[in-house]
Amino acid sequence: MNKVVVTSKTRMSHGYCVGGYDLSNGKYIRLLKINGSNQGYDTQFEIGELWRLSYTPRQDVIPPHVEDVLVTKQQYIRTIDDLSDYIQRRITPYNGYITGLFDNTLGFTNNGGLYVNGSKGLPTNSVGFWLIPEELQMVKGAGDRIRYKVRNALYEMPYVGLQPALNSIPAGTLVRVSLARWWTPDPDSCEERCYVQLSGWY
């Protein structure tokens, strides 16, 4: 069984998307149920927990979403007190400007949204850690949607985590970013994109 730390948990339409980092092999993983679905609302997995897991890689992954694994056995170990320190002792997060996220493969909308469409290649993963060099400010979107933007800049991304939203995330904070699944933003366009999301902070 591999030792895995749970690093994210986001609400989906039929459960939770749970992200983790496998300490045994240094890989990002997304913890799916054995049938390939997201974890249910009754999942035991919580951010900051350390688990021993047995899993098999999902076979039908579509890059850059290569992290999906099917969990077959799980054993809780403990909860980590300082998750930011724990992660940074094991992973070197990206610490540059937002436009360099995901291996410099991003495109940008006129409204400052960030996405991957394959025109600049694909990143090696659809998730990552970012030590933000500048403050991120909360921006209210349509309905109850919340976005965060780089202070005094155009670039912004939707927030999809479960933590209560903060008005400001200070520079130097470790955050987790992810790419949404492939999606066509314009029904009249055939281009599919993966948009950058803010999953949470530590």
What would you note in describing this structure?
The strands form three sheets. Strands 1-2-3-5-4 form a five-stranded mixed beta barrel. The protein has helices at 83-88, 101-104, and strands at residues 2-12, 15-22, 27-32, 49-57, 68-79, 107-108, 114-116, 127-131, 136-140, 146-150, 156-158, 168-169, 174-179, 194-201. The chain has two domains: 2-85, OB fold (Dihydrolipoamide Acetyltransferase, E2P) (Beta Barrel), CATH 2.40.50; 92-201, no CATH class. Strand 1 and strand 2 form a beta hairpin. The radius of gyration is 17 Å and the shape is globular. Helix content is 5%, strand content 42%. The protein is built from two helices and 14 strands, in the order E-E-E-E-E-H-H-E-E-E-E-E-E-E-E-E.
Proportion in β-strands: 35-45%
Q: What's the overall geometry?
A: globular
- Class of secondary structure makeup: mainly beta
| End-to-end separation | 26 Å
Q: Give the biggest beta sheet.
A: 5 strands, mixed, barrel
Radius of gyration: 17 Å
Estimated helix fraction: under 10%
Count of alpha/pi helices: 2
Spans of at least 5 consecutive residues whose pLDDT stays below 50 are none
The ordered H/E elements are EEEEEHHEEEEEEEEE
- For the biggest β-sheet, the strand order reads 1-2-3-5-4
Summed over residues and divided by their number, the pLDDT gives a mean of 95
Count of DSSP strands: 14
Instruction: Characterize the quaternary organization of these chains.
Output: single chain
Count of the domains? 2
Organism: Salinivibrio kushneri
InterPro entries: DuOB_dom (IPR054335)
Domain Dual OB-containing: 3-201
Pfam families: DuOB (PF22557)
